[in-house]
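Title: Prediction job returns without error message
Component: structure pipeline
Severity: low
Priority: P3
Assignee: unassigned

Description:
Job completed but the reporter wants confirmation the result is attached to the right record. Sequence as submitted:
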Amino acid sequence: MNLNKGLCRWTLKFLLTLVLLTAVMPVVGMSTARADGWEEALLTVDTLHDSFSALESLIKLEKLDTQTLRKQNNDRLKAIQTKIKNIDKGKLEQFKASYDQALKKHAPSLEQYKTLTKQAAAARKAKDAKKAALLDLKRNNLKPAVDAAKLDIANRKSALTTAKKQAAAKAKEIRTSLASIQPLKKQIAAENKLINRTNKNKSAAEKLYRAAIKKGNAVMAAAQMTIMYAELGKVNQSQKKIHAWEKQIEGYLKAAESKLP
């Protein structure tokens, strides 16, 4: 279904382009005709009107293609950014849970060791040698288990830190592929502003064209139609640039997707 639509759209664009190429040929030959001739101006309007209509239709089709591509690009970018946030999420959660579990598991013995150390220090300060010795015995009896607990916690923390660094490195590599997209988006935004200005120029000429038609002034109508057609050509060129930039963005997105884990 999509393939048929694409072929139909391509065929229509081809035919419109052919119309444009054939329609403007007589206009070139008329450049040597009398500039103020009413009949010549009428022929210019006749020829340019067909060219203008064909170019308008072509622009609509190309704009639709670009809009479709832009939506696909935006959806893909959003999906990639979500996946970047979730890189190694399960793995990181597992390491974090393991680290938290070790902290909770060893907390009582570590706290007891810490308390006995403080109590022994206080006893020595109070010159209670007996109490200090007893407290030292209790504390030192716990030392092997405490050292093992500290090592266990340190190992699990190290595993979590390493996993975070690995995930961050993967994310950075993918973001590098996306880094060139934002400048292109800025270019597209600037080109869209240019299109808006060009359309304003075209609209101004179109008002004068309609006024000339009402007055039966073929020379003025031809002059304004020439401006309209030229401005519309600028819009077409701008849209081609935008489409090319969207295709570049598509390429960067594909590169980023290939690096996703």
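Comment from assignee: result matches the submitted record. The chain has a mean pLDDT of 87.
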